Amino acid sequence: MSALKLLKPAPGLRVLVTGAATGIGAAIAQAFLEADAAVYVCDMDASAIDRAKASHPRLYAGVADVANREQVDAVIDDARRSLGGLDILVNNAGIAGPTGAVESIDPGEWERTVATNLNSQYYFLRKAVPVLKESSDCPGIIAMSSVAGRLGYGFRTPYAATKWAIVGLVKSLAVELGPDNIRVNAILPGVVEGERMDRVIAARAESLGITADAMREEYLRKISLRRMVTVEDIAAMTLFLASPAGRNISGQAISVDGNVEYL
């Protein structure tokens, strides 16, 4: 097979994307649909799920709080029934968490960040891995970490802690699941254009006592390419890892960030 043909995921690939009604997750779901995959998405925002289904009639979807193990179990069961199995799990769901000095962070906000960003990954894995082991179509797991999973991130410690943990989870699972022909990788997005990043910049600017515009310029100065990335950039990397071209890529934490030098 030519290298060009290897770049396209196999038609009919069965894909589950978590936290996918908006943002990066929605872009990933859209990319897989355009590649003729069968796609199931979940999100805790029921109205956003309804809008996603209305926009993409071929999309399967369910509502779930990914920090709730019982709701995750129900989503996995529904996705398996709807898709007839599973080939790719994209563990994308996550939240920004609080911004502030570690001594000022509310314990409840810390726990919610860990539950949503890290525990949810385990909840989906424990139910999805047995289904992935039944796949003969180059099965894979793609976990969404962050550039904050390779760099220190002052005043964003709950978020950074979970994103570093995801990298450790991925590297360990790559060893564990390799003999089952399941590839496991993490994507580390950098500064992603969009409303979520706008909110992060505003909150960090407030914590540091500077303007949002000044904070935005500070973010850009930290990026070698001096630009933010887009959700489509992240979706493209996800498609690559799920394609035959990625069949020998596992245990990797791949940054898509324009080379963020420091945070």
UniProtKB/TrEMBL annotation:
Presence of keyword Ubl conjugation: no
Keywords: Oxidoreductase
InterPro entries named among the record's database cross-references: NAD(P)-bd_dom_sf (IPR036291), Sc_DH/Rdtase_CS (IPR020904), SDR_fam (IPR002347)
Keyword field contains Oxidoreductase: yes
Gene Ontology MF term list: oxidoreductase activity, acting on the CH-OH group of donors, NAD or NADP as acceptor
Membrane-spanning intervals of the chain: none
Gene3D superfamilies reported in the protein's UniProt record: NAD(P)-binding Rossmann-like Domain
CDD domains per the UniProt record, alphabetical: SDR_c (cd05233)
Family: Belongs to the short-chain dehydrogenases/reductases (SDR) family.
Family annotation (PANTHER family): 3-OXOACYL-[ACYL-CARRIER-PROTEIN] REDUCTASE, SHORT-CHAIN DEHYDROGENASES/REDUCTASES FAMILY MEMBER
Xref: NCBIfam families: PRK12826.1-2 (NF009466)
Protein name: NAD(P)-dependent dehydrogenase, short-chain alcohol dehydrogenase family
